[in-house]
Design the sequence.
């Protein structure tokens, strides 16, 4: 004999149907205004809610359970319906970052640069006609011409053409080599560094070239140190004349700062560079023994 089908509560369908019909016709039915029908409907709604939770058919409940979990509250797993995560902000450019721990060398260089600019401006007393020593400016410009490269090159070539001794030609040939080396090295270094001249300078210099708009190093200072050391080592001069040569080199370098042409560090490095250039010339000294072709060609001319 087949077993009768049972409903959700485990009772036979016939019993439930008869009981439901009896209850509906009884005094508790909705037709008679009783409360039995409301209790049975609420019981079925509760059972359907349990079934939907067990099957996971309600996505709202699933989202609520995920949001209430402690793992989600810690932010380890974002919601499935959440929008795309925001990208981290891009890093600041290198020039906009604040260097909170600068090196000692950087601080020292910036301090020296500030002192150099301040001292150069204070010493530029002949930078213009309205300066405190503006009346001395023509004399300083005449001193500037005495250290220019073109007068020295032309004067050396003239003396070399008029010389009639091998010793004199040897000295003058090496002086010409020293002047050309100085022009080449100064122009190369100015083009590499590209330091602008002081702001209070007036560009009224004598016969300037393309690289003369740059300031570091001072070509007059390198030439003054080179020529003075060359003269003191290869010309026999009395002591007063030797003092005048050294004094000329020092005043020429000082005049570059007073005229506003250069900063103090430009002149200081120029003196050092000119002093070292003579060592190169002395090491590569040209003579009839190691460079006979130059002296033979010059003798034929």
Sequence:
């Amino acid at each position: 004999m087949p077993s009768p089908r049972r409903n959700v509560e485990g009772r036979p369908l016939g019993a439930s149907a008869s009981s439901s019909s009896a209850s509906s016709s009884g005094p508790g039915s909705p037709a008679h205004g009783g409360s039995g029908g409301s209790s049975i409907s609420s019981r079925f709604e509760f059972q359907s809610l349990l079934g939907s939770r067990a099957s996971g058919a309600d996505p709202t409940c699933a989202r609520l359970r995920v949001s209430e979990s402690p793992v989600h509250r810690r932010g380890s797993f974002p919601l499935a319906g959440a929008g795309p995560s925001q990208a981290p902000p891009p890093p600041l450019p290198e020039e906009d970052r604040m260097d909170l721990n600068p090196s000692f060398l950087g601080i020292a260089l910036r301090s020296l640069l500030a002192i150099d600019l301040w001292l150069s401006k204070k010493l530029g007393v002949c930078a213009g006609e309205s300066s405190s020593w503006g009346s001395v400016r023509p004399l300083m410009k005449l001193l500037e011409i005495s250290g220019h490269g073109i007068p020295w090159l032309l004067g050396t070539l003239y003396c070399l053409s008029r010389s009639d001794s091998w010793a004199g030609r040897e000295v003058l040939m090496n002086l010409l080599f020293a002047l050309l080396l100085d022009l080449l090295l100064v122009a190369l270094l100015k083009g590499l560094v590209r330091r602008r001249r002081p702001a209070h300078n007036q560009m009224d210099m004598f016969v300037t070239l393309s690289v003369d708009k740059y300031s570091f190093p001072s070509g007059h200072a390198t030439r003054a140190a080179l020529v003075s050391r060359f003269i003191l080592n290869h010309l026999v001069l009395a002591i007063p004349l030797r003092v005048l040569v050294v004094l000329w080199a020092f005043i020429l370098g000082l005049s570059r700062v007073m005229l506003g042409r250069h900063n103090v560090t430009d002149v200081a490095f120029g003196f050092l560079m000119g002093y070292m250039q003579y060592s190169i010339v002395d090491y590569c000294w040209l003579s009839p023994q190691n460079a006979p072709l130059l002296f033979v060609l010059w003798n034929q001319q």
